[in-house]
Amino acid sequence: MQSIATQITFVLLFVLVLCFVWVLRRTAIPTPLEKLATGAYKLRNRLFVLALLSGCVITGFTLMPWPHDAQATQVTRHIDIKARQWAWELSDQTARVGEVIEFRVSSEDVNHGFALYDEQQHMVAQIQAMPGFVNKVRHRFTAPGVYKVLCLEYCGVAHHGMVADIQVLPAP
User: Fold this and answer.
1) Counting CB atoms within 10 angstroms of each CB, which of 75, 87, 98, 160 has the fewest?
2) Nearest to 88 by CA among 26, 42, 153, 141
3) Average of per-residue pLDDT across 20-35
4) What is the pLDDT of residue 68?
């Protein structure tokens, strides 16, 4: 039954496309006034294409690697983190100043927001923890202390208690 509905949908879609093509063909015959307006619109069309290309170039340059990302390319260690209602499971809870840690974050149940806070409660890294995916975020620790891992995505009644600690030790 499903395949018949799919076939009917494709046939009707094809008929609709043919109707659009027919209407476009009928309206494509220019009138004398349209011929006059065509010259006036050429400049506008060229400016539009120029603006579109400029936007693509600017977007492309802004998506290039950021300087801080280039510094964090040499991963020192990996810490695997699994989120579940209402706890974090970390493969390691210690790090050293200067280490670049790649956090590999996943979830066992619902979406969670992995956020890493320093001792002044400033967020230093964050990424989404989603079931069925492993998302990665890198962070270079620059100061020793106890960093908090908090959940940014409301995940249920005990969401507020979803906290873990990472102890960052001074460099050797």
Assistant:
1) 160
2) 153
3) 74
4) 56
Cβ-based neighbours of 127, under 8 Å, separated by 6 or more: 103, 105, 113, 114, 135, 136, 137
Is a pLDDT exceeding 70 seen at residue 65? no
Measured from the Cβ of residue 19, the count of other Cβ atoms closer than 10 Å reads 10
Residue with tokens 């969401």: 159
- Cα 43 from Cα 24, distance rounded (Å): 23
Hey, which bits of 8-134 come out as E strands?
Answer: 77-84, 87-90, 94-96, 100-107, 112-117, 123-129
Helix/strand/coil for 26: helix
pLDDT over 60 (residue 72)? no
Contacts of 119 (CB under 8 A, 6+ apart): 143, 145, 146, 147
> 136 pairs with which residues across the strands?
104
Helix/strand/coil for 91 = coil
Taking 80 as the threshold, does the pLDDT of residue 77 lie above it?
A: yes
Residue of 124, 166, 164 lying closest to 145 (CA atoms):
166
Confidence of residue 39 (pLDDT cuts 50, 70, 90): confident
Q: Which of 53, 71, 59, 56 is nearest to 141 (CA)?
A: 71
CA-based Rg of the chain, rounded to a whole angstrom?
Answer: 28
